[in-house]
Amino acid sequence: xxxxxxxxxxxxxxxxxxxxxxxxxxxxxxxxxxxxxxxxxxxxxxxxxxxxxxxxxxxxxxxxxxxxxxxxxxxxxxxxxxxxxxxxxxxxxxxxxxxxxxxxxxxxxxxxxxxxxxxxxxxxxxxxxxxx
Length: 132
Known about the structure:
Layout (H helix, E strand, L loop, with lengths): L10 H28 L9 H6 L5 E5 L4 E5 L14 E4 L5 E5 L17 E3 L1 H8 L3
Antiparallel strand pairs: 1-2, 1-5, 2-3, 3-4
């Protein structure tokens, strides 16, 4: 009678541990992206001044003809890259009317968001918004 070949007792255990490590890494990357994208949401005060008070970073573009102010934020530090930066759109009253975390449709009105106009400073944007 021939004895069966001896199996290494730790082989399956090592494979299982490797799988768990890969799963944990994948979930960690997903959690990082979600955390970074949550940081793109507008502040509770959804006005231009609310963004300024919240210390948001970015560049401003004034579209005088269209009556819009665009706040273009730096791209999120995510594993999944977006082709366009996060963009926030304000009307003449300084109220947030639309925003998008990337090239998709907006999050409020589901309309595409593309920044237009000329670069502006915070002071120029405040002057354009006018007194309240």
